[in-house]
Amino acid sequence: MSCLFRLKLYVIVVVEFIVELKLEAKVRGVCFYAITSFAAIFLFVMMLVGHPSVLLFDRYRRKFHYFVAKVWATLTVTPFFKIEYEGLENLPPPDTPAVYVSNHQSFLDIYTLLTLGRSFKFISKTGIFLFPVIGWAMFLLGVIPLKRMDSRSQMECFKKCMDLIKKGASVFFFPEGTRTKDGKLGAFKKGAFSIAAKTKVPVVPITLIGTGQIMPTGREGIVNSGFVKVVIHKPIDGNDPDVLCKEARNRIASVLTQA
């Protein structure tokens, strides 16, 4: 029996246990982080073992690492909420570089997005890389570090994204810049759209619905019951960052207002 199969059986048992007990939000939160940590340690070892081969054969996309990350995210969220996908046919082929953008409601957003199985590079605060296991895994995934309010770091991040796209990788932005506390869509920064315009790759807008209700911003210790919907909109092409930004925000907002 393979290790992954055993891990899958473990998660199935945990799912049935959690559903049967109908645990309160705080207890579900403790269980969530316990499963996250357990799965992360096991799967990080897989990433570490495979890293030399990834650097040799797939340095920029790192598809093996993102497959492992998808397994980790799926194992982590499955016991707590279901994810419904709409518009999967709008996802570009896995090897097609693109700029993905989404609204940002919750700590759970990245878990949810990883289940899509696309090897896009996230941008993250530099401090997160110091977290044991999770931060190390982010480094192996090729997540792009960014110091907030640091113009030099922002420029380096911009150049790194441009370079990755030119070499066939995709990048992911939360153009609001931070998580919203009330679930309302904030103003979009134009960095992601400038990168898309300069590199002539499509922008893929994604709307996340429900993550903010399950784990609200500022209350990361709880996991409420509920479900999440991921809506992938049709890619947008263009060479005007302002137009790309406005159109992407409109598409994301159009679904949020219906939720």
TrEMBL record:
NCBIfam families cross-referenced by the UniProt entry: AGP_acyltrn (TIGR00530)
One cellular component term from this protein's GO annotations in UniProt: membrane
Protein name as catalogued: 1-acyl-sn-glycerol-3-phosphate acyltransferase
The EC number(s) this enzyme carries: 2.3.1.51
Enzyme class per UniProt: transferase
Keywords: Acyltransferase, Lipid biosynthesis, Lipid metabolism, Membrane, Phospholipid biosynthesis, Phospholipid metabolism, Transferase, Transmembrane, Transmembrane helix
Transmembrane segments: 32-57, 128-146
Keyword Acyltransferase among record annotations: yes
UniProt GO MF annotations: 1-acylglycerol-3-phosphate O-acyltransferase activity
Catalytic reaction list: a 1-acyl-sn-glycero-3-phosphate + an acyl-CoA = a 1,2-diacyl-sn-glycero-3-phosphate + CoA
Record CDD domains: LPLAT_AGPAT-like
